[in-house]
Amino acid sequence: MTRMVVRCPAKVNLHLEVLGLRPDGYHEVRTLLAAVGLWDELEVEAAPPGVWELRVEGGVSLPADNTVWRAAKLLLSAFPDAGGARVVLRKGIPAAAGLGGGSADGAAALVALAKLWGLPVEPGQLVAMASEIGSDVPFFLFGGACWATGRGEQVLPLPDLPRYGVVVIPGQEPVSTPAVYRAWDEAQQESALPSFEPAPGLPRPGAGWHEGEGFFLYDWLVGKGELPFAKLRNDLQAAAIALFPWIGENLALLARFSPLTAMVSGSGGTVFGLFRDEGEAVRVAAELSPRQAVAVPLLRREESQLLAHAE
Ligand code: C5P
C-alpha cells in the first residue's frame, strides 16, 4: 500500500464525572463518550525511511509535539524500519473545543500508518499506544458509544445508542483542558479535595455493575433503550463556565429549544443538545445558525470505528 485516507469523527461526552485528583496529576473520571458526525481527514503516503512531512489544512496550526507525530514516533520506536511518510491532515473538527479532534487525529494516524507500513500490530498494542498519546485516544479506535474510566483511557464499547439528533455549538475561542481541570481543583478546595488512586481496571457489566454512579449504564445495557437524561451531567461544566462565561450563554440558548439534555462536552467550550431525531436537530441548528450551531448525527460503531481500517 502506498497511500491511504482515514476519516476520523469527533466525540461528545454525554456524561462526565470527575472523581478526584490522582497522584499522577490526572483526574479519575467516568464518562460516556459518543462519536458524532464532524470529521477530520488524514491522508498518508509512503515515503523513504527518515522522511516525515506533516501538512495541516483548515486554518489550524498544530504544536510540534502533536498527536499525529506522537503516533508515528510510537510506531517507529516499536518498528524502527517501518518507513517514512508524507501526511496531510484536513481539519473539520474545531480544535481545543472538547470535541476530541486532536485525539481522533492521533488514533487515525496510528491505524493509517500501521496499515501503510504493513506493520503486524495487534489491536491490544494499538490501544496501549493510543493511551500513551492521550486519555481520549483509545475511544476513537472503537467509536460508537463507550463507557470510559481511569483518566478516560480505559474504554468499554457499548451497544449503539438510539439515533438522537445532536446540535453542537463549538464556541468562540480555544479552551485549555488543563486550565479547566485546575479550576475544578480550585473549586474543590472549598470542601476537601477528593484524591483517587488510578482505577484498577475496567468495570464490567455483571454483579455490582449497577451500584454507584454507573447505574444508568446498567439500566440502559439491560434494555431500557433510552438514556436517563435527568441523570446525565458534566462535572467540569461549572469550572468551564466560570472561566468562559460565553459557554453558559450558549447553553442557555440551547435550553430554549427544550432539548432532551444539554451540556458542555469534555472541558468545553463546545456545548451540545440532544434532540429526539436528526430532523429536529436540523431545525434547531437552523434557528441558531448565527452561533455556528451545526446538527450532527450520533454515529453507530460501524460508521466510526477507526480500528476497522487496521484490519
Ligand atoms: O491525556 P491528555 O494528554 O489528553 O490530557 C491533557 C491534560 O488534561 C492533562 O495533562 C491533564 O492536565 C488534563 N487531564 C486530567 N485528567 C484527565 C484527562 C486530562 O487532568 N482524566
TrEMBL record:
The biological process GO terms on file are: isopentenyl diphosphate biosynthetic process, methylerythritol 4-phosphate pathway; terpenoid biosynthetic process
Catalytic reaction equation(s):
4-CDP-2-C-methyl-D-erythritol + ATP = 4-CDP-2-C-methyl-D-erythritol 2-phosphate + ADP + H(+)
Where does the GHMP kinase C-terminal domain start and stop, copy by copy?
A: 234-288
Q: Where does ATP bind?
A: P94, A95, A96, A97, G98, L99, G100, G101, G102, S103, A104
Q: What is this protein called?
A: 4-diphosphocytidyl-2-C-methyl-D-erythritol kinase
One term of GO molecular function: ATP binding
Recorded family membership: Belongs to the GHMP kinase family. IspE subfamily.
User: Where in this chain does the entry annotate a coiled-coil region?
Assistant: none
Kindly report, in one word, the top-level EC class recorded for this enzyme: transferase
Per the UniProt entry, the Enzyme Commission number(s) are: 2.7.1.148
Residue ranges of every copy of the GHMP kinase N-terminal domain listed in the record = 66-144
The UniProt keywords, alphabetically, are: ATP-binding, Isoprene biosynthesis, Kinase, Nucleotide-binding, Transferase
Per the record, the domain of life is Bacteria
The organism's lineage is: Bacteria, Pseudomonadati, Acidobacteriota, Thermoanaerobaculia, Thermoanaerobaculales
The record's function comment reads: Catalyzes the phosphorylation of the position 2 hydroxy group of 4-diphosphocytidyl-2C-methyl-D-erythritol.
Tell me the active site. K11, D136
Pathway it belongs to?
A: Isoprenoid biosynthesis; isopentenyl diphosphate biosynthesis via DXP pathway; isopentenyl diphosphate from 1-deoxy-D-xylulose 5-phosphate: step 3/6
